[in-house]
Amino acid sequence: MNRTFIKYVVIASILFIPSLLSAQDVIKLSGTQTRGNMGRNAQIHSSPVVLRKNRTVVSVSGYNRGFWINSKKYGKIASYYKSNDRDVIGLVLERGTYYIYPNLGQRQSSGSVTIKLK
């Protein structure tokens, strides 16, 4: 192999690996809610996310009228009442297990919310 090619591969690797590692450092916490018929088939769902260290919320997205975050240890720890409320950005979640659920607006049949943590 020629040395120029090897040099470019080494440089590309040095530049690419840190971005790959930082991308893996982002954790997503998501939840959904479906209104359904009262008392019969309404559903909320959030897959638990286990944080091994403290993480900070860096973004929020989804189709919602606000949302709430639950901790397995403490129950509801935060509530937000505006669509994709950016006030959550900067919130630090301590080590533990978390869930998130969207609030539904009037006449909204389903909703979703996702926050990204670094």
Structural features, described:
Strand 1 and strand 2 form a beta hairpin. With 118 residues, this protein is of the alpha+beta class. It is built from one helix and nine strands. It has one domain. The model has no long low-confidence stretch (mean pLDDT 87).
N to C succession of SSEs: HEEEEEEEEE
Distance between the termini: 40 Å
Tally the beta strands.
Answer: 9
Largest sheet: 5 strands, antiparallel
Short description:
This protein is an alpha+beta fold and 118 residues long.
Notable features of this structure?
19% helix; 1 helix; elongated; 42% strand; 9 strands; 118 residues; alpha+beta; five-stranded antiparallel β-sheet
Topology:
Layout: H1 3-24, E1 27-34, E2 43-45, E3 49-51, E4 55-61, E5 67-71, E6 75-80, E7 92-93, E8 96-102, E9 110-117
Antiparallel strand pairs: 1-2, 1-9, 3-8, 4-7, 4-9, 5-6, 5-8
